[in-house]
Specification:
Strand content: under 5%
Distance between the termini: 43 Å
Number of helices: 9
Radius of gyration: 17 Å
Mean pLDDT: 86
CATH topology of the largest domain: Arc Repressor Mutant, subunit A
Number of domains: 2
Low-confidence stretches: 104-111
Order of helices and strands: HHHHHHHHH
Structural class: mainly alpha
Helix content: over 70%
Number of strands: 0
CATH superfamily of the largest domain: Winged helix-like DNA-binding domain superfamily/Winged helix DNA-binding domain
């Protein structure tokens, strides 16, 4: 079913909205949550909770991308759960990015993080499709290097090189735009 039709089902408060969403995006949601939580039971709970958050958000929100909006909810829900559970399965990815993006602890840097997010999206829009897929797979979907290599038919060394080059390019891009790295 088309996303716009699913969103209309949410506005009609039809329970079919959730079943259609689960059918279309369930595996993706599980992949995102599992990449962060690394536990089947916690993943299932996170995804279920995310569907309820989506149900509560639409309406009034009418997201341009149902998939993107749902992925954001799942990811944020999983990150919150991971912090509460003391999970560190995604720590390796954050360590890799720590040389590129300043740590966000102060109110000022939290405000700047929105701008930084926009700049990251701009940068990723300017790189090749493969570079973007590798970067997003690693740092958004929390996939391992071997999973990315397998999924994109690349060698692990090529994935690591691509990530390193993309991080270096991103760092330069952010510095040129006045973002403290």
């Amino acid at each position: 079913m088309d996303d716009s039709k699913i969103i209309e089902l949410f506005f009609e408060r039809s329970e079919d909205a959730l079943s259609e969403t689960k059918t279309k995006y369930g595996r993706l949601c599980e992949k995102i949550a599992y990449g962060i939580l690394n536990n089947n039971e916690d993943t299932e709970e996170c995804v279920s909770s995310s569907y309820m958050k989506l149900w509560g958000a639409i309406p009034p929100k009418r997201p341009q991308s149902l998939c993107g909006y749902l992925c954001m909810i799942v990811r944020n829900t999983a990150l919150t759960a991971a912090r509460k559970l003391g999970c560190h399965s995604f720590q390796e990815q954050y360590d890799e990015l720590s040389e590129v993006i300043a740590d966000v602890h102060t109110v000022e840097s939290r405000f700047d993080s929105h701008r930084t997010g926009e700049l990251i999206n701009e940068y990723l829009g300017s790189v090749s499709g493969k570079s973007r897929r590798v970067f997003v797979s690693r740092y958004y979907f929390n996939m391992s290097v071997s999973e990315i290599a397998q999924g994109l038919s690349m060698g692990e060394g090529a994935v690591k090189t691509q990530l390193s080059r993309t991080r270096a390019g991103l760092k330069k891009y952010l510095q040129e735009r006045g973002v403290e790295v």
